[in-house]
Structures are given as structure tokens and as C-alpha cells.
Amino acid sequence: MSLLVVGSVALDTVETPFGTIKEGLGGSATYFSTAASFFTDVQLVAVIGEDFPEEHIRFLKERKVDLEGLERNMGKTFRWQGEYGYQLNEAKTLKTDLNVFELFRPKLPTAYTKAPYLFLGNIDPTIQLDVMKQVVAPKVIACDTMNFWISGNRDGLLKTLAGVHILMINEGEARALSGEFNLVKAAKVILSLGPKTLIVKRGEYGALMFNDNKIFAVPAYPLESVFDPTGAGDSFAGGFMGVIAQNADRANISDATLRQAAIYGSVMASFCVEAFSLDRMRSLTQDDINRRYLAFKDLTGYEYTA
Ligand code: AMP
């Protein structure tokens, strides 16, 4: 079952305490679609400029991501520059150059309008809404955003959120969106804006999933070496929505599926941070994914007998 993503395809310049990468492959839709491609068919909607390197297109094609919705327009590709301190949980944005995204108004290829699963990756909420309206009968719509849009296009974001089922944001964003510091209170406010499920990503502390009156906690996998957290959130979302799309026939997503999706999200995020850009994804195998899934079960499972 097809999973449609709209988001950024970018050239990222990133500095972490462990090194620097200049204009590497990045972008929310890139990380998402690559992670999701291990689970399901992915259709990508985004824009690149004339300067976008062919090798990156080849990489996405090798991952079997459908690129019919990737427009190449006159101008420069979106660029993002960020840095992380030893506290790797949140990026400090140094520069955002929207470039071709500034005028991007996607027109979905006909085949894409039937996508049952939709992920609105981090991009201008006005574009997210535009895409959401073009999909005819989506079963599940998930969404990400960031402070840049929470403060830069709040009205647009609130309109998008009204139609979204699952929102995945990090804890700083949850606080900025809700105006509440405490995450349980923040979740209550956010769940009143539209989404039925909220996932709050907390970097090395994992993620919290809130729905109805339930909370599920998933840890981040404890790794010996973390190089670059960029894209961890989108890789989480890719694994998560990939599992949701695999459970296509179920009309209602069960709690158990949501929980399993969150674990696979964490699995994909844990691989993402092991190398710069999408480099770890290039050699990743299904076996690696299965092994880490089992390691997660081992990490979190316990039995108690009195
Ligand atoms: P994350 O998964 O949250 O670490 O997302 C990282 C990706 O988001 C990077 O590869 C950036 O290219 C992309 N990004 C950063 N800022 C923006 C923005 N304002 N709009 C769209 N994409 C962005």
C-alpha cells in the first residue's frame, strides 16, 4: 500500500562534535522515504533546483522511491545549515535557504492522489495543507513540523493540524506549539488541536506516544557511537509509517500496531544517527533491521514472577 510523503529534499551542512559535512544529502522527505522504503512503497513529493546532484537521485531510485512527484525547478535547491553540541538532542539552525521551496505549489501526479497513507514532512504548512487536500481518501495522515513554522506560519499549521491523525514533533516543538512546559499538559493541548495521537521525540531519551488517556514510552537504542542526529526524527517517522502502511487492511489502527510502529521508528532512527547524512542507510539490510528490533525487545522486555 502506497505511502505518500511531502517534505524537503535538501543539501545540508552540518557540524557535530565529531565532524562536519558540507552540502550532503538531506531533507525531511529524503530521510523519511529512505527509512520507509524498507517497509513499503513510497511516493515522494518535493522540489529540487538545477544544482541538485544526479548521484542523490540515483540513491533514491536504488531505494525504489517513486520520484514522479519530485519536481526540478529553475533556481537553487533548498539548503539547511545546523550544528549540534555534545548535547545532541536538538539542532541549532544556523541558516535556512528555502530557495526553490519558496514558490513550490505541488500538483500531485494522478496516481498519488489515491495514496491511503500520507506523511506531511517538515515543510511550510501551507504546502502540507495543499497536498492533503489533493489526496482523495487518505486513511492515515501523519505530520511533522518545527519551530521555524510554529512561529513562522502558525495559522497555516493550525489549519493543517485540524485534519491530521498523528503528529510527531520533538519536545521543544511540543512546548512551543502548546505553550506548556510540562509534556503531559502539552500533549493535552495538542490533542485538542486535531491529532488523535501525538508522538513527542526526545532525542537520546526516546519518544513518548500519547493517545486517549494512554502513554507509551519507547527508548532510543543506546549506541556506542552517535555521529549525526540530523534526520533521526524523519527516519523514526519513516519506520513508523512504514509499519502503519503494512497493516493496510485494518480499518482502525490498533494500539498494538501503533506501539510496534513506534519501536520500528526507533530502530530506523538508531541507524540514521550512526553516520553523517544518509550514509548508514546505504549499506543497511533487512537483517540489520530485524536484529535491532530483537535487541529492542531485549532492551525493554521484562518478566516479573513473585
Ligand atoms: P530532523 O529529522 O528533524 O533532524 O530533520 C532534519 C532535516 O530537516 C534536515 O535534513 C533539513 O534539511 C530539514 N529541514 C531543516 N529545516 C527545515 C525547514 N525549515 N523546512 C523543511 N525542512 C527543513
Number of domains: 1
Classify the beta-strand content into a percent band: 15-25%
What is the highest CATH level, the class? Alpha Beta
Mean residue pLDDT: 95
Shape: globular
Sketch the major β-sheet.
Answer: 9 strands, mixed
- What is the helix tally? 11
Query: Do you know the CATH architecture?
Result: 3-Layer(aba) Sandwich
| Helical content (DSSP H or I, runs of 4+) | 25-40%
What does this structure look like?
- This protein has 306 residues and is of the alpha/beta class.
- It has one domain (2-300): 3-Layer(aba) Sandwich (UDP-N-acetylmuramoyl-L-alanine:D-glutamate ligase), CATH 3.40.1190.
- The chain contains eleven helices and 13 strands.
- The chain has helices at 28-36, 54-62, 125-134, 147-152, 154-162, 171-178, 183-191, 232-246, 255-272, 279-283, 286-300, and strands spanning 3-6, 10-16, 19-26, 42-48, 70-72, 79-83, 92-97, 117-120, 140-143, 166-170, 197-201, 207-211, 214-218.
- The strands form two sheets. The chain has a nine-stranded mixed sheet, with helices on both faces. A four-stranded mixed sheet has the order 3-2-6-7.
- α6 packs across α7.
- The radius of gyration is 18 Å and the shape is globular.
- The N and C termini lie far apart (45 Å).
- 47% of the residues are buried.
- The model has no long low-confidence stretch (mean pLDDT 95).
- Bound molecules: adenosine monophosphate (AMP).
- Adenosine monophosphate binds at residues 8, 10, 12, 26-28, 31, 80, 96, 122-123, 146, 148, 230-234.
